[in-house]
Amino acid sequence: MQLYFDVTVPLFLESLTHSSYIKENPQAGNHNERLEFLGDAVLQLCVTDLLCSLFPECREGDLTRMRHLLVDTDTLAEIAVELDLGSKLRLGLGEEKDGGRQKAKMLANTVEAILGALYQLKGLKECQRIIQHHFTERAQRIRYYTPPKQILMEWCQQTYKTTPVYRLVETQGPSHNPTFCIGVWINDEHIASGSGSSKKVGTIQAAVAAVKRLRQEGAMEPSTS
Prior knowledge:
By secondary structure, the protein is mainly alpha-helical. The protein contains ten helices and three strands, in the order αααααααααβββα. It has a three-stranded antiparallel β-sheet with strand order 1-2-3. The two termini are about 30 Å apart.
């Protein structure tokens, strides 16, 4: 059962309405930030319930790790792209020109807002069914997945009793579609760099590159997955 929305229903239309649209069209009603706030709480609860059902043997730490991966911006934006939410957003002209329909954070926030609207209209059980549809396979894929940032941090702590340091190296491209280059240092030595459409993505890519280099050089054990 896919996450659905009917723009003829006022609450669903509100869930697709960015604050920039209301600033330019104050007569249009409310923007989606309150629904986003509600939907975030619904998402956290439903994903937690799903993980506890799928993995009754897992400890709290593993469940927390999986939940963090499932409710992050990238996963929610991926779902938004699958649903083509970008084309349905109501944006102000400035946000439209700035590439708002492709912004991962905005897409993720919209998914949360739709969940908030769905909760108010249909209740928690309907939200649980929707979450089960969109997140069960994703949860099973990440059951034994360890993020590269975590791998690098644990290796640094065990090897040097320190943590990696990530720094912005440069920003490239136009302001509406920048690329962020992030470097990672260990003990003041530059280990690797990565780039992405956000600082978060660039940081993840830097960690991926660092782990790959350390494994190739034999400093870190190779992956067993």
